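Worked example (supplementary).
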Amino acid sequence: MDGRWAAMVRMWARSLFRRGRVEEELARELRFHLEQEAAEARARGVPEKEAASEARRRLGGVTQIQEECRDMRKAKPIEEFEQDTRYAARVLAKSPGFTLTMLLTLALSIGAVSAIVSVVEGVLLRPLPYREPGRLVRIFTSNRAWPKFPINPNDFRDFRARLRCFESMAAYTRNDVPLAGSGETVRLSGFAVTGGFFHVLGLKPAIGREFDQNDEMPAKGNIAIVSDRMWRSRLGGRRDAIGRKIVLNAVPYEVVGVMPRGVEHPGNMYHAVAYGETVDVWTPFTNYGDPKFRGAHYLDGIARLKPGVTVAQAEGEMNAGMRQLAREHQGSEDGWNVIVNPLGQEIVGRSERLVLVLLGAAGLVLLLGCVNSANLLLARATARHREMALRTAMGAGRRRLIQQVLTESVLLAMGGAAMGAVLAFAGVKILLKLLPADFPRSGDIHLDAPVFAFTLLLALASGIVFGLAPALLGTKAELNLSLHEGGRSSTSSRRTLRLRNGLVMSEVALACVLLIGTALMLSSFVHLLRSDPGFRPERVVTASISLPHLNYKDTKAVSVFYRQVLAQISSTPGVEAVGVGSDLPWTGWDENNGGFFIKGEAPPPRQDFHARYHVATPGYFRALGIPIVRGRAFDAGDEPGAPGVLIINEAMARYWKHGDALGGKVSFEDNPKTGKDWLTVIGIAKDTKDTPQNAGAEPAFWWAVDQEPWPMAADASIAIRSEEDANRVADRLRAVARELDPTLAVAEVRTMEAIADGSYATPRFALALVGAFALLALTLAAIGTYGVIAYSVNQRIPEFGVRMALGAGPRDVLRDVMANGFKLGAAGTFAGVLLGVGFARFLGNLLYGVKAADPMVIAASCAIAMATASLASYVPALRATRVDPMRALRAE
Amino acid sequence: MSRPSDMIQGTLDLLILKTISIEPKHGWAIAKRIEQVSEEALQITQGALYPALHRLEQQGWITAEWRETDTGREAKFYRLTKAGAKQLKQELAQWERLSNAIGLVIRAV
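After joint prediction of all chains, the assembly is encoded as:
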């Protein structure tokens, strides 16, 4: 049986691809037959001349036999397809204007969608590079003040020991370390991780081992795992790197493992480092401290669910565990809940909306492209009415004609897809350049085979869908009418015009939707740029410095160092102000302190006082241009022995309900008694939000560096406001730091303007893309409107001729045609506004400071849509006014 | 020449398969053989033979090759495939049953 199937396939392929040969053999076979037959007739005594004709008579019509044989070969549909394709290509080549417009329309819309689908695929659909990533979850805590917060080390250890929903659990926290060695000290992006961290992710070291829970003992000695990048650049990429020592934080660490290439950091919350290959060194987390002390939350939790366990089940179990811990530890865990979120959602959740909005916008453009194509094809079908009628008269069946017209549209779609793929390829490249630096998974975005297959499928589907209506309408056999009237003013052409009017209205509506979206995003962006950041980013150079804890054990050592740096920098010509602080605005700082006391004030019911925790030197506020709205900044007098002082921001000042915040007293002691336990608020700084998009600023306070009880400022940022060129300022800073302590790493040197600019990157990216799509949509809608109006003008030329012969002026004709365009535009705009308001709601958190149904935005969008429709009808209207009455009438 | 109906087409297939079951033959020889054996009673148009041959070849029942005839001319010779032989056997059996049944009916009336 198999042999037969193989034979069938072989024969089918042969009749398809070797058609010439098959036909030629058949001809030879039939010739042989005729010759034999004739020879036999001659042998019977039939005269030479008659023998041949008798043979032909007995065999029958050769052409007919050949045709029947062709039918038997079953390859006919494909042969027809080939014919149709050739015909279509010829026809399309004959009208290059139409073909080019179609191809461009399709290429642009298909290209736009493919590029965005690449992003969707890379960011949202492609599985994360961990084993069974669907079972990975992130663990956070929350209470009334902090809806999403890191976890406490001792809580984590108890969870890990007790809980049953998880296969494995680990925690990690940022631990950047200066790496000393040959040349300048550099700061490595590092994490302290609990034992089995990589095991949870399903990753294994390329060489060596990963940490286990024994490594969490502080006494175990200093060990580290390094990234592939670090192994290659700093350890020579040698397999015997295991056991080698590297100097981190001025302490030797033994390398026990090397991770392979492509190990992506799963992202974290506390002192966030973005998802990606962003981490170079991992050290064991050992800092559990006293199990009774559970107030410090700074670990990011990650866990792998057991198969079949849902996120909700795990969260339920975690919360039961938390309540148990609260009972065991009398109060310190009260009010805390646990949040369990899928890892994928944590990584891309923030960008999901943006990606989906872009997909929606690209989808609208594709829809518009299809509608426009249908419109163009329809216009063409009408113009080809005579051709179709003629072919019908010649005996072509309707099915065959539809097939022919569809072939044309599919051919156009494929051409458009090919061009679109090229555009998408370029588009993805450009997109990656435009993408905000912190965009998750941008490394996973590229145009690949599945996306390309999707494009092809999309093109094919759109080719058939948008080709169908014109094919059905265009081939409607109204033979007599068409041949007589040349397709003019017949019922079918009126129906076509109605359909085309509908198409144009939907084009204007779609464009209007995108216009509204763009206008809203533009308005948010302007709002964003105009809103006061609370600091002045111009001419400020910043950098971060880490002081190794070994050499800078206490506040005194830290403050002595900074005093020297600041003295040297401020004496540099051109420097206006310089300051050191725990952090810089808009860099994701999220160090918090809760449960402090304010003299004379009580916290809101069932909440505590909480605020962002910062440290600053006297020059910090001036260097960053953060105004002290009341009171004063720190000065040299705020020394260790002097009365404790605090600067707070306006948001924190609102905690004072009864008295003045300035001069108010704040204590961080558990049981403040004496005057020394209280700090005095000496200044109120202007609010600075976490990011420009945030609704408001968090309450915040600043300790003076010299008075801070914990040496928080060991990892600090320096800000220098200077007239000098940024590079020279940075060089000066490096030189000063090296002179004071050659083991220090000056890292993340950037201007404050660059930081601010980075904060605008996402809204700017969204705006640029949606704006580009809107422009594209507007162009397509203009083409569509132009096409329809031009067509209706052509149809009405005799009418215009008559009217002008009867005394109508060009202005009347112009007004008439433009009114037509205006009506279509108005109807489309109306529908567009209704849809646009829906689209605006979908924009959600991409909008800032503007309502979804902003009347100004809607009015502006409507005006643009209407203006475009009117302008597009102006050109054909102008042509209508130039109609020569005599010629128009004669043509009739 | 009209297209053979299904009934005649099936019969023609059977005749062709039977004719080449003994030895491979070219188209003209098959036509001659059918005319000869049926004593010219079955007037099949010669032209209908070739589409039938095409179909049978397409279905894998028969296969063809170009060979020299006795007179030294190139001709396309058809022969049964294994599947074709099996098919012939089935169709013959079916034909027997059918003609027997018809015979019975006719005699009974």
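Two points are worth noting when inspecting this output. The interface with chain B takes residues 1, 3-5, 7-8, 11-12, 15, 25-26, 28-30, 32-33, 36-37, 40, 58-61, 64-65, 68-69, 71-74 of chain A (CB under 8 Å). The two ends of chain A are 69 Å apart (CA to CA).
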